[in-house]
Amino acid sequence: MKAKKIRRAIIIVILLIVLCIILIPLVWSVILSFDRKALSSLPPFSLVPHEPSLFNYEVAFKTIPLVRYYLNTILVTALHTIIAVLFAMMCGYAFAKGNFWGKKFWFIFMLAVMMIPFESRMVPLYLQYKKWGLLDTYAPLLLGGFAYVYGIFFSKQNIEAIPDSLRESAYIDGASEWRIFFRIILPLSKPLIATLSILQILSNWNSYLWPLVVIRSAEKQLISVGVSVFNAQQDAIYYGPRMAVAVVSAIPLSIMFLFLQKYIVQSIAVSGIKQ
Amino acid sequence: MKGMGNHALINKGVNMKNKQLFALKLKRQLVWYSFIIVSILTLGILTYLPMLTTIKYSFHDTQVLGFGEEKFIGLLNYQKIVNNSSFLKSIANTFILAILGLASIPIGFVLASLINNIGKSKWQSLFRVGFYFPNIITGVSVVLIFQIVLKANGGLLNNALSLLTGQKVTIGWLSDSRFSHLGATILSVWGSMGYSMLINLASLQSIPSEIYEAAEVDGASGFKQWLYITIPQMTSCFVFLFITSFINGLARFSDLFIIGGNTSAGRPGGTLQTILMYIYQFSFETPQYGIASAGAMILFILTFTITMINLKLTGFFKKK
After folding, report:
1. Of A156, B88, B96, B294, which has the fewest CB atoms closer than 10 Å, so is most exposed?
2. In terms of domains, do A156 and A183 share one?
3. Extended beta strands in chain B, E state
4. How far apart are CA B62 and CA B66, in angstroms?
5. Shortest CA distance from A124: residue in chain B
6. Is B274 exposed, middle or buried (0-12, 13-18, 19+ CB in 10 A)?
């Protein structure tokens, strides 16, 4: 019994040390971002800033429209998440409980899309939006959300587990399928909604290639691309401000993670898929 | 006469009923279709149509799109691309990076095993959340941070190595083409091992404890239990992680693009140009859509093949 306890303590200590090593880059970048000394040369590692100041953040916010990028990204993320989750659940409901012609065909029609990587159809898609005159708008970033294939598949599996008896009694009361969907299925699917929303928020906040391709004007850009453009312009120096930018763009998801860690960790483990 | 009239009346009634029934049935169909029609149209227009266009472009001479006729040239684009040394190099880079990136799986497994070992407790949730945290950091921030951590002069990693070896180490992990594959892998493994740990841990905890209890009764040692119970039970988890990690690796773009200073050249020295960066280069930097589409088709075929192998291995076809 005692040997087991000691072994457990040793494992905990090892894990703590490894965790510290893994998190050091994050800690250091936060410290650098508050260090006035970190500008054209890299100060040595320390646990407190050599010269604490908010200077780097001032520079960062002055050089690039961070607030603008923030608002753009929040807007796109929120809209895309709402659209994607709602329409995925509508399809999931139809495939789980519906009975209609061609159900199997349409289900395979949707599932097959998982095998077509976005990247292999990106160029024609870009040209399509160009032809429609929708480049440099948020339409290309949002319209894809109307078919969130993984979400459809995941919703179908989850909604299938809701007992039919609930639907039947609502049916007898004369409720339509849409009413049942909004009044019974949605309220019973809160964990499903949470999981899909979390996956959507994570992937939207990180989306890079597609906004890089379709958004041209700097003031419409999303945070990841905006920040990387700034980073490329600064080339090798300007360490402090770059770290300030890195911290600022990582903050929203980090805060969300701290508050919702239990759900997020669970969602990721359950879904088994990140993007 | 009277009988016939009755008959006709009944017939008429049945017809009416049939029609009503049909209308009702049709209405039900339409209701269900109203749930899925938007997604169907979206997939048709935004997925299937462009995919078919990619296939079409890959067989056409579409150097200057929209000007003059698009000429059918058969496999010439494919011929051009597979004889192009920089495309072959980008395939090699992609595979090297994807394979190196698999390191996150054993690392995640070891972490998960240790974390699982300490039993359900506050410590366990702390480690679960702590080790997962890097995965939540925005991709672009990770690159910015690691450009400094992996810097040749004064970078954290080199400083640590200097301290350990007693000599001054100045490896340009992201600027020296001899080390760039390793450097880019350190960055990606740092970001993805938390995910691998999480999936491994969930899988470890779903192994029924009765199996271990039975083995204990039979006197199997800890190591034997690990070798004969844990590893076989984890196979499907490993396969899943292998496939997802590999497919993600094939489509790697953002971090390497940012490392290259927002160009698709794959700096340093083209060693970090992946297939997708090559496609990007011939789509948006020096547009030759025929070439880009042939590249996209090759990427599609690679991804498709791996997905099919995955479905075969996981028995997806058997269930249906």
Report:
1. B88
2. yes
3. 60-61, 71-72
4. 8
5. B50
6. buried
Asked if B296 lies within 8 A of A232 by C-beta distance, the reply is no
User: Per-block average pLDDT, block size 10, for chain B (320 residues)?
Assistant: 55 74 88 96 96 90 61 86 91 96 96 91 92 93 93 89 89 91 96 94 89 86 85 88 90 93 88 94 87 92 87 63
- Nearest CB among B43, B153, B308 relative to A109 is that of B43
Q: Do B145 and A29 touch (CB under 8 A)?
A: yes
Same domain for A151 and A70? yes
| Same-domain status, A86 and A199 | yes
Smallest CA–CA distance from A261 into chain B, residue = B129
The ipTM is: 0.89
> Closest to A228 (Cβ–Cβ): which among B36, B250, B258?
B258
Probe site for chain A from B55, B145, B307 (most A CB atoms < 10 A):
B145
Beta-carbon separation of B141 and A147 below 8 A = no
For B66, residues 6+ apart whose C-beta sits below 8 A from its C-beta are none
Task: Render pLDDT for A186-213 as a digit per residue (tens, 0 to 9).
Answer: 999 999 999 999 999 999 999 999 999 9
Based on the domain organization, do B49 and B106 belong to the same domain? Answer: no
What DSSP line would sit under B30-89, residue for residue?
A: HHHHHHHHHHHHHHIIIIIHHHHHHHHHHTEE-SSTTSSPPEE-TTHHHHHHHT-HHHHH
| Mean pLDDT across chain A | 90
